[in-house]
Amino acid sequence: MRLANSNSTRTLPLFCSVLDPITMVVLSVPELDRISLIRAANPAARFDALPVVDLLSPDAAATLIEACEEFGFFKITNHGIPTDLMRRLEAEAVEFFSLPPAEKEKSGPANPFGYGNRRIGSNGDMGWVEYLLFSLASKPSSHVSVSNSFRWALNAYLSAIRELASRVLELMALGLEMEPIDAISKLVTDEASDGIFRLNHYPTCPVLQGLNCSLTGFGEHTDPQIISVLRSNNCAGLQIALKDERWVSVPPDEDSFFVNVGDSLQVLTNGRFRSVRHRVVTNGSESRMSMIYFLGPTMAEKIAPMRQLMGEGEQSKYKEFTWSEYKKAAYKSRLADNRLRLFEKSK
């Protein structure tokens, strides 16, 4: 287990004592081995400046562009997706994750798709999370054994989120004064586009109660794709890093969606938009459920700064690469690695 704050991380033995300002608690839980403890954030770290893009507002495009430049992250309201549709999939996910471990493990191990528990990827990253990961290049339910009602709820949700993502990316093109309006959205709407969908469940962890710290649910990282669209229940835990590297907590809102700018979009805009570094932490007392749709291009798509977004005489900051090349690099890296560094041009 590791005890972490914003500046340092140190490894503790499996059977360890964690010093709290009030009390000392001895943790002897094998399941928590190699998962980081994060010192509790100051309440002032709540992200009250969260940009909100109201899709019915005439200022939506301008707000979206400003949010992508400053934070790489924003909330979407008035999106038009029925609440019942969101909650139906959440209920199906809760039912799945409530199954006995042996039943859930029939859909795993994740390699990379399917059911996973604590192990994130194949490079040593761990978190207090269990998940279902779907490739959308094939039938999304083909990697796991799910009920017909789960399959129906999943397909209905994915269809709605695809439409929402297209609207968001067209609004982005409008704000950037790009033509045609689908200049960005067409990259993720092709039948061969590389979409991935993840259901994350962060269970309760009673051993943490009374400690002045949180447990890493999903370690800090950026998303490799163009954008990702997130929805969660009303349990807090999502945090993003600001430009000054301070971590802030995002207030939950189960009726809205959140959008992350991914590495590929940072490259397409030549660094004008920033890929947001984010993580999920849990205090162990509440169960968090999140649903994330990662929208990537086709495997052969070439990723490079888009000409119409570059000013006169502006030089590309990145080497051109295909989505396949970048995806392979991502799978070989640890969560916290700066993957784009491998593709940056020398200054």
UniProtKB/TrEMBL annotation:
It catalyses: gibberellin A1 + 2-oxoglutarate + O2 = gibberellin A8 + succinate + CO2. Its cofactor is L-ascorbate. Coiled coil: none annotated. Residues 192-297 form the Fe2OG dioxygenase domain. Pfam families: 2OG-FeII_Oxy, DIOX_N. InterPro entries: DIOX_N, IPNS-like_FE2OG_OXY, IPNS-like_sf, Iron_ascorbate_oxido_reductase, Oxoglu/Fe-dep_dioxygenase_dom. Keywords: Dioxygenase, Iron, Metal-binding, Oxidoreductase. The keyword Iron applies. Its EC number is 1.14.11.13. It comes from the Eukaryota. GO terms for molecular function: gibberellin 2-beta-dioxygenase activity; metal ion binding. PANTHER family: 2-OXOGLUTARATE (2OG) AND FE(II)-DEPENDENT OXYGENASE SUPERFAMILY PROTEIN-RELATED. Belongs to the iron/ascorbate-dependent oxidoreductase family. GA2OX subfamily. This is gibberellin 2beta-dioxygenase.
